[in-house]
């Protein structure tokens, strides 16, 4: 019997027409444009909570807000407010503005500021640095200033099982780990407790840790709130070389990325797609116990798609080039930067200050509270 294909819906996203299946979200339509033409990748709205492989994720962080300038061909009125592109479905004739709309770009700056209200600026001592989506989001879309003066909330670090550590202080409440726990457990043993400023994941997630696939919460966490205890403080991600490898595993697909420092496998993670999402979860045996090269069949260097320091000094020189967004940001932000501090131009003073600052940073990174 002939397969009946659903009628496609045509929308315009930042001036580009794209046809997608009914039920597609605006975010997925934008990703379709970028998947067809890599140079359009900058059009895709950022996502801090949406994670395609985790059904029902999205709608929490507002990083992906866009303007719908025309709702549909039937009702071409604009939507009154910006809408989250990750959970808003397309309509025939919809016109969406993202990078072409100043209000969207301006709002995105505020969203970065909002997410950083409670997130500590401890990137120099955070294991996620270099592969942190919040770091990328703030670099690509944030502003140089914050208006927040209150103290950030802090939590004690919690060991959840032998392999995973939760540092709630860094959590942005994206719910990704919650949805991951939902997938790997049969009963509801997890969730976000309390409301507003008092919200936290915590004990619910601890109960999900007694599971062969619990390590996947580390990979889905966009920040350094959930980290791998077998890898913490072993290296910076830009010093390690990622390699795709597989093994014959009875519990999972066995397809992983091995992270080498010299000849040593210092970390095993699931593989991520071009959007930084894990398509196939891996089991804890592959992640935490197979740390010898002889455990694996090596396929070759991992192709790192995200513009990231992970790709610097590795296999592909073209990935070291400054990504487009950095040049665009520099072009738009260089002049308006409002910085009236006095600068010294005396080279000896500059050198001295720089040595002093490095010493302070080194001292901070060696403090016991930053190393357990
Ligand atoms: S711990 Fe990480 S994955 Fe879980 S809600 Fe917080 S930021 Fe999201
Ligand atoms: S990515 Fe859409 S709301 Fe978070």
TrEMBL record:
Its cofactor is [2Fe-2S] cluster; [4Fe-4S] cluster. SUPFAM superfamilies: 2Fe-2S ferredoxin-like, 4Fe-4S ferredoxins. Residues 353-362 have a biased composition (Basic and acidic residues). One of its GO terms (cellular component) is membrane. It comes from the Bacteria. Keywords: 4Fe-4S, Iron, Iron-sulfur, Metal-binding, NAD, Translocase. Residues 7-102 form the 2Fe-2S ferredoxin-type domain. Residues 353-372 are annotated as: Disordered. Belongs to the complex I 75 kDa subunit family. This is NADH dehydrogenase subunit G. It comes from Dyadobacter koreensis. The lineage of its organism: Bacteria, Pseudomonadati, Bacteroidota, Cytophagia, Cytophagales.
